[in-house]
Q: What sequence folds into this?
């Protein structure tokens, strides 16, 4: 009964990990799309007249929007790829790299805000801030889920955690072992039989001697 309860708990933990992985995947996907779309919409609505200017300052709406677009293009797609491998593929390093990338991006955005970069459009900073904070949170959740998942990998019954299925799989393994053992025994018996067939029995040896025996002088006496 206790053994069955352990498998039930492990199955619940595994399902929870899979839900977290799906959550991480969609947060990074939708968050990245939101960041890119927001930047493009801002470039069209708020700064279209500056887009074709020869020179722009960092504080102008065009410079700001272009900066946010570049940030979205450079950060969002790689972060999504890292999160995909960290969650769907359960690769720990990728999950950590995604967390580091988003954290560094957040630090950069805070530095730029302190330098008045976002003053023309303060809302743009809060969009990037929201994206970064949410992604950092789900990255930490992803790392925790990976720790639990790797522990479950070493548990009996993984990944199904079904008692009957586990017993069936165990029987299959035992049958394979027995089949290998039986094949090895047959091979050894065949080898031993072939070896014995090449050795003459004592009766055959005596018969050969009788057939090869010729009468000599003592026989004539």
A:
């Amino acid at each position: 009964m206790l053994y069955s309860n352990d498998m039930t708990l492990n199955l619940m933990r595994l399902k929870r990990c899979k839900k977290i992985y799906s959550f991480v995947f969609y947060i990074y996907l939708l968050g990245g799309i939101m960041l890119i779309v927001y930047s493009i919409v801002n470039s069209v609505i708020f700064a279209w007249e500056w887009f074709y200017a020869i020179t722009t300052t960092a504080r102008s709406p065009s410079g700001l929007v272009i900066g946010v677009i570049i940030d979205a293009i450079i950060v969002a797609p790689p972060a999504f790829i890292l999160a995909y491998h960290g969650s769907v593929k359960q690769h720990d390093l990728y999950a950590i790299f995604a967390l580091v990338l988003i954290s560094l991006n957040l630090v950069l955005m805070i530095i730029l805000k302190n330098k008045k970069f976002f003053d023309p459009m303060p809302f743009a900073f809060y969009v990037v801030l929201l994206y970064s904070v949410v992604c950092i949170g789900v990255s930490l959740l992803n790392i925790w889920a990976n720790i639990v998942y790797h522990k479950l990998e070493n548990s009996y019954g993984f990944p199904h955690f079904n008692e009957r299925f586990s017993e069936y799989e165990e029987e299959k393994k035992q049958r394979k072992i027995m089949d290998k053992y039986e094949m090895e025994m047959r091979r050894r018996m065949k080898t031993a039989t072939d070896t014995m067939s090449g050795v003459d029995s004592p009766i055959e040896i005596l018969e050969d001697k009788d057939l090869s025996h010729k009468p000599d002088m003592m026989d004539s006496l």
Summary: Helices lie at 2-45, 61-87, 92-114, 122-153, 163-197, 202-212, 217-220. The radius of gyration is 38 Å. DSSP finds seven helices and no strands in the chain.
